[in-house]
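User: Here's a protein and a ligand (serine). What would the complex look like?
Assistant: Let me lay out the input and then the predicted complex.
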Amino acid sequence: MNERILVTGAKGQIGSDLAIALRDRYGAKQVIETSRRPLSASDANRLPYEVLDVTDKRRLQELVEQYRIETIYHLAGVLSAKGEQYPDRCWQVNIDGLRNVLEVAKTHRLKVFWPSSIAVFGPHSPKMGTPQFAIEDPSSLYGITKAAGEMLCRYSADRFGVDVRSLRLPGIISHRALPGGGTTDFAVEMFYDALKYGSYTCFVRPDTRLPMMYMPDAIAAILALMQANSTAIAVRSSYNVAAVSFSAVELVAEIQTHLPHFTCDYAPDFRQAIADSWPSVIDDSQARQDWGWQHCYDLPAIVADMLVHLSQHIGSNGAADRAGPQPISGGV
Ligand code: SER
């Protein structure tokens, strides 16, 4: 029988794509999308949908009981750049929200997916080939909440037998929904502005090299992890997963192979320091070995696919419009 699933942060960058993949796989009625924001008229196809702030444990528990939920994909979170601007909210959502999910999972014997991040690493972690068990010394508040969250996950699994699974996601590139205030957002914004304006002002230096992944690979990783036999999941904190690593200027060059007149200039802001503290390339051999992770999209494939999808949306679809240059976009 198909499992009943609740998705938190369903209107966010990953939630918007993951909810569709889960509906396809498990059936539309099985997937309860939730977010802090009410459903808009254009989202009527997203039912069943409920408003949920993950810091409200009682409401979370009610929904789990009302829909007899078996699995939670807990995606609600405040990303790295926004976390520096709204530290209280970052802590509440990322730590209290996760604790609420893990507590309810313990009581109701739920399975949980929760995304961690490359942000758990910091200046003293190896920058190239960062191993699964490298030192974690995050310098952003977001990274601190993710590192603590990983420990909470492992503790819940070891101490209470909660079947919680997690990935340290790199920057995710996608075209359905915008990222909500992360440091890797430049790698998404660049596509929108290349198509709309023919130019982009990048908020990190050209040589900034970070691990990245295309959304279809991220969705495949999440689904594969959640389907793996529980005995194969040796890591209950969070798995390194990698796909590609490229610098900002390499992304510009790849976009220019399709849009030769595209230009990019650089105006690094506070996000540069966050990016500089993160690894450039991470080693995900444990994920590949334990549950067969492999990625499909390299940089040329990502760029080609992004441009095809975004050029269809831009102009005709307000949702695909990032509304011009702006410092930080999106929300929880
Ligand atoms: N994409 C995230 C961010 O930039 C990293 O996990 O905050």
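Summary: The longest helix spans residues 87-108.
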